[in-house]
């Protein structure tokens, strides 16, 4: 109709350019990291941490919360789960913008190359987070905001190329496939 042709002429006159994703890098020094075993999702006391403990730890790291359980902290008294190890240097890269699935696959492939020589990392993670107020989340179903707008998945990739896939979704949303 007339509305459609008006929109088409608007877009043809005004070149709409996709915004380039914003990329930030940071180095986290002397970071306490949970000890993980790729074949042990539940974790074992004094041997490895569970998937839930990792997910909680990752949330604290990505939000730059302190991990040292200081009672004087007004922000967080969270501490890294046991067992853990101190990593001298951890790299955090954040890419913000509209990212298509093909680019996420490319990122995963590039991350897996990191396990080549020198073999420094035991595992790495890639978290893909939808905007809290995005209109859809999973299975093209309308996304309910309600409280937090949870809408994310996280890959944990191990040196032997085993991986975990964690998904989080709001209480009123359709479950991921």
UniProtKB/TrEMBL annotation:
GO biological process, one term: endonucleolytic cleavage in ITS1 to separate SSU-rRNA from 5.8S rRNA and LSU-rRNA from tricistronic rRNA transcript (SSU-rRNA, 5.8S rRNA, LSU-rRNA)
Any single Pfam family the record assigns to this protein: Ribonuc_P_40
GO MF entries: ribonuclease MRP activity; ribonuclease P activity
Gene Ontology CC annotations of this record: multimeric ribonuclease P complex; ribonuclease MRP complex
Protein name: RPP40 protein
Species of the source: Malurus elegans (Red-winged fairywren)
